[in-house]
């Protein structure tokens, strides 16, 4: 397990037993544009298969932020599901969390970390992230059905994965 304490007493931990998965599920499924409507089981499986990072408030230890790294713990990681509780935003926790994840993965030998963001480019840029150097080399296979942005519900119609199934 990895743990780090910020000067103001916030604790970052990779201990999966400390995660408040009910809280994490609530954050992601109701307030994170990339995970709206995600069910509890999917959140649990995703975190079980990843390196989790929880941030806990000083005093009562309540979880106030989360992130996970999908990684082989040797060469590559994808930083995702980074979320800071609305009540804890504006105090630099997001940048601290991203920097701590970056540093911990570097200690493991991970040299490439990818992430995707719609609205937090500046936060990640402050800790060293930037655009892909050769985006033309990267490819994507996205099997998600189209989702209505406001509700997080799948849109009607056949998807290529369900036609004829």
Helix/strand layout:
Elements: E1 3-5, E2 11-13, H1 21-31, H2 40-48, E3 51-56, E4 63-71, E5 76-84, H3 93-107, E6 112-114, H4 121-125
Parallel strand pairs: 5-6
Antiparallel strand pairs: 1-2, 2-3, 3-4, 4-5
Structure explained in plain terms:
The protein has helices at 21-31, 40-48, 93-107, 121-125; strands at residues 3-5, 11-13, 51-56, 63-71, 76-84, 112-114. With 165 residues, the chain is of the alpha+beta class. The chain has one domain (3-132): Aminopeptidase (3-Layer(aba) Sandwich). A six-stranded mixed sheet has the order 1-2-3-4-5-6. The chain is globular. Residues 157-165 have low confidence and may be disordered.
Task: Label this structure with key terms.
Aminopeptidase, disordered C terminus, 4 helices, alpha+beta, six-stranded mixed β-sheet, 165 residues, globular
């Amino acid at each position: 397990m990895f743990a780090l304490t910020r000067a103001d007493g916030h604790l970052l931990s990779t201990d999966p037993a400390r995660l408040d998965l009910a809280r994490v599920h609530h954050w992601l499924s109701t307030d994170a544009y990339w995970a709206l409507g995600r069910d509890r089981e999917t959140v649990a499986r995703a975190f079980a298969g990843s390196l989790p990072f929880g941030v806990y408030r000083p005093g009562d230890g309540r979880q106030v932020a989360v992130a996970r790294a999908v990684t082989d713990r040797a060469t590559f990681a994808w930083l995702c599901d980074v979320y800071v509780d609305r009540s804890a935003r504006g105090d630099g926790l997001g940048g601290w969390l991203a920097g701590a994840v970056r540093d911990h993965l570097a200690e493991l030998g991970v040299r490439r970390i990818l992430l995707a963001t719609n609205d937090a480019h500046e936060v990640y840029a402050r800790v060293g992230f930037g655009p892909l150097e050769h985006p033309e080399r990267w490819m994507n296979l996205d099997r998600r059905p189209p989702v209505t942005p406001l509700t997080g519900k799948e849109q009607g119609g056949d998807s290529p994965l369900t036609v004829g199934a």
